[in-house]
Amino acid sequence: MLNSAPVALAVSTPWRDPLLVGIAGLAVVLLFVAALAASRTGRRVLATWWVVVKRLSGAFGALLRGRAEPAPAVVRRSFEDLGPTYIKLGQLVGSSQGLFPERYCSEFRKCLDRVRPFPYADVQRILREEVQRDPGEIFESIDPQPLASASIAQVHAARLRGGQDVVIKVQRPKIDEVVEADLRVLRLAARVMSLVPIGELANPRGIVEDFEANIREELDFRREAENMAEFNRIMVEHGQSQVAAPKAVPELTTRRVVVMERFFGYRVDDVEKLREAHIDGEEKLLLGMRAWFQCMILHGFFHGDVHAGNLMALSDGRIGFLDFGIVGRFPRERRDQVTDYLLAFATGDFRRLADVLAAMGSTSAKVDLDALAKDLAAAYAPMMASEGSAMKYADIIPSTMRTAIRHGLRMPRDFVLVVKQMLYFDRYAKVLAPSLNVFRDPRIISALTMDIMQARMQVA
Predict the structure, then answer these.
(1) Rounded distance between C-alpha atoms, residue 197 and residue 204, angstroms
(2) Is residue 263 within 8 Å of residue 246, measured between CB atoms?
(3) How far is it, in rounded angstroms, from Cα 130 to Cα 124?
(4) Residues labelled as active-site residues
(5) Rounded Cα gap, residues 124 and 118, in angstroms
(6) Cα dihedral sign for 122, 127, 128, 129?
(7) For residue 139, what are the β-bridge partners?
(8) Kind of pairing, strands 319-321 and 243-244?
(9) Three-class SS of residue 140?
C-alpha cells in the first residue's frame, strides 16, 4: 500500500541557498556599479560614496581610539578629497556666516587657500587650444609659477609681445565636465535631505540652486570680462577716474581663458605696506565704497566678493577691484528695498527697517512689526555703536538671520550678500581708520543719500 504522506522534493529552491543568494546579490551590486561607472555622473557618485565611506570609517576609528575628530573637520576633508566643485562649495560655506552653523563656517574657511596648482603644461595646452595660436607668438614671457591657484582656475603673470604686463587666468582641465557631474550628485543629495523635516527647513535645494547658478557663471570667463567692462563703464559714467577693474584683452578672452591687464599695488588691509608707500588708506577705502554704492544703487549691479584679496590700493594711486566672477544684480523693486533699508539703518529708524525686511522676506504669516523692530535694534546695536567700539563680525549676520527666522522671514540671498560686503568694508575701516564707522560716517551717509535721490529721480 502506497504511503499517501507528502514527499519532500530532493531539489531545494535556489533562493533558499545562502551561497547562491550571496552570489546573486554580489552580481546585482557589480552590475549596478558597472552601470554607474559607464557614465561620468555614475563615476562621480561612486567616487563621492567612496570618499564618504573612507572619511566616516576614519572618524569612527578615531572615536574608538579615544581621539574623536570634529564633524566639521571630517566634512571639510571630504570636500577637499572630492576636488574643485566641493572645494568651491566649501568656500561658499566658509564665507557665509549666518547661512550655515558657525563651527562649519570656521572650519571651511581653511578651504580658501588649499587648492593644488595644476601643471604648467596644461596651462600651455589649454591656452593654445583656446586662442588657436602658439603662446610664444602672443606672449614675450609667461611665469610658469602661478600667482594664485583657485578651485576653478589659476592665474599666471605674463607679458605681451608689445610689452604690456598682463595676467592669464586659465580654467582647470575638464573642470566643466567634473562640475556637471558633481552638480547632479549635489541635486540628488539635496532632494534626499529635503525629505527630512529639519533638512527642508535648511532649504538644501535652494542652496544647491544658488551654488549652481554661481558656478555656471564663473565657468564662462567671457561673463567675467563683461562684468569688468560694465564696472569700468559705470565708473566712467560717474566720473570715477580713480577706480577701475582690470581691462580684458578681447581677442584673448574665451570661455576658458581670459587675459587682462595686471594691477600692481597692495591689499587694502596691508597697513604697513600702505604706510610705507605713503598711501592714505582711509581715503582709498571711502573712494572704493562710494564706487561700490554707485554701482549698486544707480545700476543694480555690484561686486559680490570684496574680500581683501579683491580690493587693492594701486601703485598709481587708484583703487582696483579684482575678480568679478561673483556679482550681484538687483531688479528695480529689490534695489529700492535695499536703498530703503540702508537709509533706515543709517538713521536708526528700526520701525522702517522692520517694514522693509518684512517686504523682502518670504513669508505668508502676519509679522509683528513692532516686535521685529525691537529685535532688530538689539541685533544691530554693535554696528550702531560709537566710533572705535569693538564688534564681533561673525555674530552680525547670524544675529540678523536668527531675528528674521524668529519672525517667520527668510531673507533673500542677494540681500545677505550686500550685508556681507558692508561688513568687509567696516572690517577694513577698523584696520585703516579705527575711528571710522562705515555705518554712521556722515561722508558716507551724505554720498549714499545723494545716490539714492538720483536713483529715485531716474524712475520719476
Answers:
(1) 11
(2) yes
(3) 10
(4) 305
(5) 11
(6) positive
(7) 160
(8) parallel
(9) strand
The residue behind cell 579615544 is 66
Please give the Cα distance from 130 to 133 (Å, whole number). Answer: 8
Q: Residue 95's closest CA among 423, 452, 430, 450?
A: 423
pTM of the predicted model, to two decimals? Answer: 0.78
Closest CA to 321 of 413, 421, 393: 421
Backbone angles phi, psi at 157, to 5 degrees: -75, 145
> How many other CB atoms are found less than 10 A from the CB of residue 39?
12
Give the cell for residue 89. 562649495
Could you tell me which of 449, 58, 448 has the C-alpha nearest to residue 292?
A: 448
316 secondary structure, DSSP code: T
Coil, helix or strand at residue 141? strand
User: β-pairing, 248-253 with 257-261?
Assistant: antiparallel
The DSSP output letter for 142 is: E
Q: Which phi and psi angles does 172 have, rounded to 5°? A: -65, 145
249 neighbors 260 (Cβ within 8 angstroms): yes
Please list the pLDDT of the chain residue by residue as tens digits (460 residues).
Answer: 444 444 443 444 444 545 544 555 545 444 444 544 445 666 666 777 777 777 778 777 777 778 877 888 888 888 888 888 888 888 777 766 656 777 888 888 777 655 788 999 999 999 999 999 999 999 999 999 999 888 889 999 999 999 999 999 999 999 988 888 888 888 888 887 777 655 444 567 777 887 888 888 889 999 999 999 999 999 999 999 999 999 999 999 999 999 999 999 999 888 899 999 999 888 888 899 999 999 998 999 999 888 878 899 999 999 999 999 888 888 888 888 888 887 887 778 889 888 888 887 656 568 888 998 898 888 777 666 655 444 555 566 667 777 877 887 777 777 777 877 877 887 788 788 777 777 677 888 888 888 888 887 776 5
Q: Cell numbers 570656521 label which residue?
A: 106
Rounded distance, CA 166 to CA 148, Å? 14
Distance CA 288, CA 282 (A): 10
> For 117, which DSSP code?
P
**Could you give phi then psi for residue 361, rounded to 5 degrees?**
-70, 140
3-state helix, strand and coil shares in percent for the chain, rounded to the nearest 5: 60, 10, 30
Closest by Cα among 443, 446, 394, 405 to 96 = 394
Position 299, amino acid: H
Q: What are the phi and psi torsion angles at 320 (to 5°)?
A: -115, 130
Of 50, 288, 450, nearest to 58 by C-alpha is 50
Q: Rounded to an integer, what distance in angstroms lies between the CA atom of residue 256 and that of residue 291?
A: 29
CA distance 153 to 346: 39
